[in-house]
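To the wet lab folks,

You asked to see what we're planning to order before we commit. Fair enough. Below is the target structure as tokens, and below that is the sequence we designed to fit it. If anything looks off to you, flag it before the synthesis order goes out.
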């Protein structure tokens, strides 16, 4: 009997101590943020709770499914039967957009309203300006790189160079298309529920762009982690590796792939040279016989 009463008391205590969704979000993201020491603690909590109810809840409802479609639609490597764990990871990525974006946006809105000088706060402000809004350009190797490859004729060198340009351009176009589609989803939700974004100062708008830039960078890193899983045929357990260890294994696998490509290219080149030599030898051996026959 007494044990039952104790259990009831424990349950009641747990219910009293259980955090609401807002309290959990605030505790995780804003607990130690001071709002530039210009808001009273009660004002900071009220500001955050209004943002949570008006922006965060709608954002979480709206963006997960479209982002999942972006991942599965933009990358051909995912157009296959995927391991259930891979599908779970894709769902996690689709749910990650709020990890930094929403708390950072709230801080930005408050700081901009309070007149914070972002150029003073961020010593690399000019670098931030250059990062935001610029489309990715193709990362091209110099033509001289291909000219330095042994045993390539000028025609072969040009073919390899043009193929490199095509592949680099396709990669940049894919990046820009995916980023635009992803950020359109994010911004459509944010602008619909948080019109204050439109009232940001010019420097505030730049910082808003920087928040989105970092958001997409995190998204891209996570997607490429899954793409590496498929490209290098990693065991599914690699998903549990720490980021640094996974990155090391990806770099090693990429280098191994390059080494194999080089070996295949050298073997192909050797086979071509042997075929040419054999053909030349056969031609030399056939010439006297043809001459004798003609006589």
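Sequence we intend to order:
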């Amino acid at each position: 009997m007494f044990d039952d009463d104790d259990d009831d008391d424990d349950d009641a205590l747990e219910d009293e101590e259980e955090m609401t969704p807002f309290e959990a979000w605030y505790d995780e993201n804003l607990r130690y943020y001071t709002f530039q020491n210009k808001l009273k603690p009660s004002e900071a909590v009220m500001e955050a709770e209004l943002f949570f109810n008006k922006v965060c809840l709608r954002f979480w409802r709206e963006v997960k499914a479209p982002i999942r479609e972006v991942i599965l639609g933009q990358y051909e490597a995912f157009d296959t039967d995927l391991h259930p764990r891979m599908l779970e990871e894709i769902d996690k990525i689709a749910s990650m957009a709020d990890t930094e974006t929403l708390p950072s946006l709230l801080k930005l809105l408050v700081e901009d309203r309070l007149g914070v000088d972002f150029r003073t706060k961020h010593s690399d402000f000019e670098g931030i300006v250059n990062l935001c809004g610029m489309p990715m350009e193709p990362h091209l190797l110099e033509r001289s790189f291909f000219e330095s490859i042994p045993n390539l004729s000028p025609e072969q060198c040009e073919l390899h160079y043009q193929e490199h340009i095509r592949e680099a351009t396709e990669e940049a176009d894919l990046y820009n298309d995916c980023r635009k589609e992803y950020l359109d989803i994010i911004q459509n939700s944010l602008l619909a529920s948080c019109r204050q974004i439109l009232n940001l100062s010019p420097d505030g708008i730049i910082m808003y762009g920087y928040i989105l830039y970092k958001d997409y960078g995190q998204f891209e890193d996570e997607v490429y982690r899954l793409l590496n899983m498929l490209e290098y045929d990693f065991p599914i357990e690699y998903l549990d590796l720490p980021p640094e260890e996974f990155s090391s294994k990806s770099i090693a696998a990429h280098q191994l792939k390059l080494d194999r490509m080089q070996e295949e290219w050298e073997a192909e080149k050797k086979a071509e040279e042997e075929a040419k030599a054999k053909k030349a030898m056969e031609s030399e051996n056939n010439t006297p016989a043809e001459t004798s026959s003609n006589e």
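Structural context that might help your review: The longest helix spans residues 243-294. The chain has a mean pLDDT of 86.

Thanks,
Computational group
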